[in-house]
Write a structure and sequence with these properties.
Elements lengths: L5 H7 L24 E8 L8 E6 L2 E6 L9 E3 L10 E3 L8 E3 L19 E7 L2 E5 L5 E5 L3 E4 L15 H10 L55
Antiparallel strand pairs: 1-2, 1-4, 2-3, 5-10, 6-7, 6-10, 7-8, 8-9
């Protein structure tokens, strides 16, 4: 009898596999057409994010960004001057080379999607025509549109990975808050219902090549190539 394997169950969603919605009420992003000056209204912790969060008030509105190292409540945040002060949100073309930045937009006005985890930062590397090359935390260069915006500074919360969890229960609740699949277990140790490689009486490991017409949840192991043979 066919069974729903664990990948399909998690993708479908149920009382067992569901996102903790309350943790995700704060969405990171900048409003369009930021001008003038904003203010840091409060600093707080969000269980869905690895870094302290900052609520910024601007023209009667509010938005959220990762806090930078040294940020304090009541601090002014500038959006349109070319003054290079930590916390200012500027376009990449207005930021000098070798400046630390984070929360970088992928496209102009998308709100900021790159470099948002605790303790991280990128560096403005060089100007390439109308593109700005950024040295990412992975030490690889990536080009961005010069009108993409970013926050000047280094994200707060450095050292997070240095702190041990000490016990499995602490890590369980930390992963649960972020809706992460933990602990990760070897596939052949699963029950047959939970994974295509599960059970395998006597631990005989089955073929790891997924069938070409397997549903998305069952495409695990080695995925068959779209084509084979020499390309002519």
């Amino acid at each position: 009898m066919g069974k729903t394997i664990i990948q399909q169950a998690r993708g479908h969603g149920s009382m067992t596999y569901q996102v903790r919605k309350k943790a995700y009420i704060y969405r990171i992003g900048y409003p369009r057409n930021l001008t003038g000056i904003g203010e840091v209204a409060r600093l707080f912790n969000s269980s869905a994010h690895s870094t302290p969060m900052a609520e910024i008030r601007w023209q009667g509105k509010k938005f959220y960004i990762p806090a930078f190292k040294g940020m304090y409540e009541g601090q002014e945040i500038n959006f349109n001057e070319k003054t290079i002060i930590e916390g200012n949100i500027l376009k990449l073309k207005d930021i000098p080379i070798n400046t630390n930045i984070y929360c970088i937009e992928s496209r102009p006005n998308d709100g900021g999607v790159f470099v948002r985890t605790s303790g991280n930062n990128a560096v403005v590397n060089r100007v390439v025509g109308e593109k700005i090359e950024i040295l990412m935390p992975s030490k690889k260069g990536k080009e961005f549109n010069e009108n993409c915006r970013a926050v000047i500074g280094v994200i707060a919360g450095a050292g997070r990975l240095d702190k041990p969890f000490v016990k499995a229960g602490s890590k369980f609740f930390k992963m649960k808050a972020r809706n992460k699949f933990w602990p990760r277990t070897s596939a052949v140790k699963f029950n047959a219902i939970d994974h295509p490689f599960g059970s395998g009486r006597g631990k005989r490991i089955k073929s790891k090549i997924a069938k070409r017409n397997a549903p998305p949840g069952a495409k695990v192991g080695l995925i068959r190539p779209k084509r084979t043979g020499r390309k002519r």
